[in-house]
# Entry
Amino acid sequence: MDIRPLDNLLSVSPQITPQDMTAIAAAGFRSVICDRPNGEAADQPSAGSVETAAREAGLSFRSIPVVASAISDADIAQFRQALDTLPGPVLGYCRTGTRAATLWALASAGKRPAAELLEAAAKAGYDLGALRPRLDAASRPARAATASSCDVLIIGGGAAGLAAASSLLKRRPSCAVTVVEPSDTHYYQPGWTMIGGGVFKPERTFRAMADVMPRGVTWIQSSAAGFDPVNNEMNLADGRRIRYRALVVATGLKLDWDAIPGLRESLGHHGVTSNYDFKTAPYTWKLVRELKRGTALFTQPPMPIKCAGAPQKAMYLSGSHWFDEGRLADIKIEFHNAGAVLFGVKEYVPALMEYVSKYRADLHFGSRLILVDGPRHVATFAVTSADGRTVEEARSFDMLHVCPPQRPVDVMRDSPLAGEGGWIDVDPASLQHKRYSNVFALGDASNAPNAKTAAAARKQAPVVAENLVALLDERPLPAQYDGYGSCPLTVERGKIVLAEFGYGGKLMPSFPRWLIDGTRPSRLAWHLKEEILPELYWKCMLRGREWLCEPTLLDEHAMASTGSGAR
Ligand code: FAD
# Structure
């Protein structure tokens, strides 16, 4: 090992192996950060395998993979936050240690002079001179550090954040709304299932962020890096601070590809794919078209996940194609679900089971993907039986569709806004934070027990907007969210089982039963998914046109009895 200290907290090193972990722990380190993407070299141990060994040695672990030429503000914020929260001393590594040292220097800019950082790096053998302009630039705003301010600060410009911004401005055009969002592209993720099924071209599922940002909003293209809800302020990755009267958290969730060793480096090759990644959804359709015989595995991790039906939607659309092509006698389909049921709301299960039979799919419950060996085409599952015993089972595959484990975004999980498990802790009806009354959360980031879907965010946005206006006016909060979420299960090409339900699994159909019976496969529901819902998303939901999602408003008497209001 070649460990080089940069300061009291962080040392860096070239690539380490799982076998090094005992020595690293013995050297006094308490945490490890991996800054190298998986699959850069054939002999490179995966981050997952290093993480497993690190945890066995009692070390904390964080994965912040970066490419040297494209280190973003979000990467720097993540690294800074990791240094702030991981137990120290910390060891960062990549191929040579340079990326880890670079992240350290950029994360420290503004706190220490650039010259000092460069000198410390040089002493450790890393010439970071080329970073000088960026270090200087990063120092400036931090030193200037004036808190800009707004009425409502929205963190995240995804489905939920932009819908909330539009709904708020529709009600209160004079409100000063700022959205913090690092990405320059906005994705319509529900369309990715359709890409994987060969129905949509990828272009239908994204737009430039600038084109969908609601008019009247101030967009800051940066990431949230820290929260100070007691003082109504938050920090951006670039060092700026923003003060707000009310805060809305809509940062979505994190797809944890590195939680399964071998997955990240296999993805997009060797028959391993996922509709959960825009880049690999087209590969799903390529594999489906090309597979003539063999075994196709589809996986679902433990809940919560976004769009809990999406893992099986991928299976049904693939099965539908193979059925139509007469290939099912030669293709064996297996669905490996870490959970215990096919779908959480029982009314939809009979229709889904008809398709499981039609496609001759084998269902494996309590079966969690834990390892992917792409080159050998082998997936390993931890299978837990009814008596609680867990065994590992390896299965060969020709195609593997993976839904990755999902968890809260790191910066939110480690913030004072997080509740148990790291999700933002809100009241499920008002979506108001349980401890900070001027904070709301919606979309996948919150711990409200609804299905994490864009459909849920569509219903939540007007609720949050109503309640924000009331909060700013110092009135009781009038709007209540009923837990509505929707999952259009694409059971065959041309038919959908349209699951729509609220809190407690209560069925909440949007249409009369004679038009669409959600518990039965429907052609009209397919038409809705293929043609109408994308338009509804781009032209209504993101623009504050609240079709089929007017919020339920409490009258004064009801507000008094629920105790709803500014806490
Ligand atoms: P997102 O839309 O993911 O947006 C989160 C935003 O926060 C991102 O733009 C991100 O860049 C930003 N962000 C993250 N961290 C920070 C930070 N630190 N600072 C600032 N910004 C940050 N839903 C349905 O309703 N129907 C479906 O059929 C359906 N199918 C799906 C199929 C697939 C394959 C997938 C992946 C999802 C599907 N969904 C579906 C789920 C739906 O897309 C999500 O529930 C929805 O996008 C959640 O919205 P959100 O705004 O909470 O999160």
